[in-house]
Each structure stands twice: as structure tokens, then as C-alpha cells.
Structure prediction request, 609 residues.
Amino acid sequence: MNEPYFSATLQSLMEEFSRSGVRELHLRSGDFEIYLSNDPAARGPAVSRLAPVARPLAPTAAAPSVSAPAALPEDAIIIRAPNLGTFYRAPKPGADNYVELGSTISVGDEVCLIEVMKLFTAVRVEEAGTVHAILAPDGAMVEAGQPLFALVRN
Amino acid sequence: MAIKRLFIANRGEIALRIVRAAQALNIETVVAVSDPDRDGAAARLADRAIVIGPASAAKSYLDPRLIVHAAKESGCDGLHPGYGFLSERAILPRLCADHGIAFVGPEPDVIDALGDKLRARAMASAAGVPLVPGSDCVATAADARREGDRIGYPVLLKASAGGGGRGMVIANNADEAEAGFHRASAEAIAAFGDGTLFMERFVPEARHVEVQLMGDGKGKVLHFGERDCSVQRRYQKLVEEAPCAAMPDPLREQLHASAVALAASVHYRNAGTCEFLFDVKRQEFYFIEVNARIQVEHPVSEMIAGFDLVQEQIRIAGGAPLSVAQDEVKLSGHAIECRINAEDVGRDFLPSPGRITRWQPPEGEGIRLDSHMAEGAMIPPFYDSMVGKLIVHGKDRADAIAKLSAALDGFVVEGVPTTIELHRAIVAHPDFVENRIHTRWLEQVLLPERAKRVA
Prediction:
């Protein structure tokens, strides 16, 4: 599967799955792995529980650079892309990422950049928390409203 | 190079129309959607849909940077702007060119030139296209009388600095021209601090006619006949037909030749429309403007030409030559289109978005429906309220009217109020049937008649 049809393929897989009535699907192929479940209480092995319930056109892929340790708590704070653009986790190439899994962040902290035509916009958080999951791959195009991070309240 | 993956920077019925045209050419499609459009018909049919922003058009369909970013990142090598939104903004083709994406439309410099009314008029004049007869600056009442006599009455006196109808007076003879000069000039001084006027022939009962063009960008331009779009309300077209049955053949040939000459003079590329005012009494036509895009009403031309204009647009943007010669464009029969909107006619055409609860479109030979609607589909409140375009093709105008009338009668839409019933009234009106309409007919005749009946 090559970009950008990756996410479209993933989306159709998810749609087929949700229609199928099958309870769980765990697929591994090379370094790609996906876990889908129609059971909201399921605890997936390595994929965010957001995946099966993600909004239809913003699938969150379990690509290697996406870190989602376990199912998210009910009250997780989801930080979404404010607009379409390229998702960058660091302020400039070679620099440290703004945040990593487990980072504690305060209101107003920058967590990533979204770039559109060389115009970079910093995304700031509106609620404090700890980074629980990183839901989009660094350097990938993200769509408006696509989940980027999940935080848990401290 | 032929386009392999096309980005569609639009929504609604035209996005769906473009996806289908691309698929017929075996081209992959990626459609840009705003958040509320993510479940729309175009998004579902396309190979991929990308959410570019929220409902607000300014933050989605009207942001050229978001559009081109999404097109580039999704690997598209072509971009179709549709109509409205960014379709006639030169920044879009410029950004496309910067990123190696073929724009399905004219060169940005041509879009800019045609979008400037004065430059467009100068270009038309240079190409020998007739303009509305008018004057240069008129400085005195005596000048107004002399110019009025020369132009022919009625005339319109307009403030040079003007706009918004202020400093505008209609004069039906020389005495009115003189009196009108004093009034308009005084109004212009009061409104703009400048009493300079100019004069222009006023056509009280004009028709709106327009010629469908397609250029290869190298100076070769084809026409696909003309359309008559005289049923209008507040300059919005409601019904369009092809050909203009009220125009005699020799004048029609001049009309086509004028439009082609103007487009060829700027080496026009892709689809465009040259609009004219048709003065039926004088049997003359005057240039209005060129629309540098595919238009809403293009299907009526497709129906009489048996030719897919949107597919041709995509081929030309991919570098192909025009696929037909002018003598291969055969126009036959008569086509009429009704633009159907979710509007409450009884409440001054109030846009009435909402969910379609019942959808039963007419079907049959010679009936075409360009629509993104279906049972359960949503017309969101953020954009235009178009439900679809019903197009019929008959062997002549009377046949087309009969088909249209039957099709409208069988068209059932529930959940939102629509203009279907108004279209039934238009099509059944003797003035429409006998083709005695003009651009102010709907507002001056049909709507007042209906209002009287209700009162």
C-alpha cells in the first residue's frame, strides 16, 4: 500500500469491517498492524481505541511512527488538527520534538506545527494533561479535525 | 501530459459531475470536502475525500493554500475548480503552476484580464465585438441631448464615479435626457463629489444570451452554440435553454463569430462563456463579460451538442488538443434546464436548507438530472441551496417544454421547500411557451401575477 491511497484503503477496510458484524479484527503485515473492534469496551493490543470509531474520513493509522499504548480512558482529551496541513512534531528539522509520550503539558503549550504552503501554525493545548497517545505520523498530511494527540488529565 | 489523478476543489452537484467525468476517462479522483460535506455524494464516489477545513467556506473551499496543499500531498497532477468559490481567482492556477499541478481552466493572466471589466471591454472592442452604444464623459445638458440623439432612446445616464444605482437616470427622449442630466449630475455630486456622467443605451426588454466556448490555449477556439438565460431573478438565472429560439440564424452566426474572435484573441484555454445582452427589438447584441470557468448551465449545451464539456476540459488541461473540429460540432434539438433550489418562494425565496425526506426524481428518455441529492441527504446551511438541475432535450422547443412540464410534474421532493412549483408555473406560462420573455419578465410579470393571486 503506497501513500496516499493508504488512508483511503484503510478507510474502506474500516467501513467494510463495521458493516460485517465481525467483533474484532487484528491484522499484522510486515511493520503494519491494525486492530479493529466493534466492541466499545474492547482493549486492543497496540492500537488506539479511537481507530474503529474515528470519523469516517479521518482514519487514524497504526503506522510505526504513531504511538498509542493502549485503549484511551473515557475522559481523554483529544487534540485535533485545526486545519488541513502537514503535521510536524518538532519546531524545525533536527530539533527535539515538542512533546513525547508521557510529557506533561500545561495550558498554552505548543505541541506541534501544522504547515500549509510553508506557513507554519503552532497548535497549542487548551487543557493541561499528560501525552497518552500520538495519533498521527510525523511529516504526514493531516485533515481538518483529525486527532493528533490524546492527553489524560493529571 | 494527461492527468492521472484529479483534485476536485468544489462541492455539491458540480463536484459529483466532475468525479463522474474523470472516472469516465479512467482518472483517479480526490475531492476536497469541508467538515459537513464529508458524507456527500462526491466524497463517497471519489477514490478519496480529504477534509480541508470546517464548514466556513472561507476556511475551506475559499482557501487556495489549503486546496493546493491537499492536492499536492494527495499526489494529484490536475485540479478542477468547478464554478463559484475559487474558480475565477488567478491565485489558484498560479499556486497550481508552482507545484506542477495542471489547472483545469484558463491561464491566470487571462483570468485576471477578463475579470477586470474595463480591460475586458477593451479586449472585446479590439476583437470587433459589439459593445453597448454609449458616450464618453458628458459635461453639460446640451451634451446629454446630443449624445442621447446619437445613441438612440431610451438611454441611461450614469455617474462616472458611481455604483449602487445612485446618480442613475433613465431618459426616454431628448427633453428627459436634458432634465435627467441635471438630476443625475446633482445626485452624483452629492453622492461622490463628482458630477461627471456618461451615457449608455438602455435596453428595457433584453434577453441574456451567451456562447459556450472551448479553447486549446494556442489560438484555436470552438463554440458549442448559444444559450438563452433570460428567466432571472435579481441577476440569478433560473431557467436556461439552448439554442436561443428568439434569435434569427444570421444574427446567431455573428454572435458565435464575435465570441470566438474575442476568445481566440487572448489564446483562451479550456471552457469559457461569452455573455451578451440581446436587444430583440433592434436585433443587436452587446458584450457583457466573459466567464472564465465551466458554468452551472453547461448541460443544455451538452444536450444539444451530444458532447461532454467537462471531459473535454480535463483532456485539454492534460495537454490534449481539441477533440473535435468546429464542423463536427452538430447542434440538434432544444434543451431546457431548471435550477432547482431549496428555497421558500412564498417567503421571498428564503434559502431553506435541511434534510431530504423523500426524493423521487423524474426519469425517461431525454431527461437528465445533475444532482448530488438522494433520500436522507442533507443540504447544509453554509453554502448555496441548490438541490439539482433538471435538464430535458426535445426535438424542438415545444417538445422540450412538453417533456419538461411532465418531468416537473413527476418530480417529488419532501423535507425542504423547493422551487419546483415555481418552475412548473414558469414553464406553463403563455409568455414562456410563446417565448416572449426578457430578463425582467420573472420579476415584472410572473411573480407579481402570483402575488396577486395569493392576495
Observations:
- The two ends of chain A are 39 Å apart (CA to CA).
- The longest strand of chain A covers residues 110-116.
- Residues 43-64 of chain A have pLDDT under 50 and may be disordered.
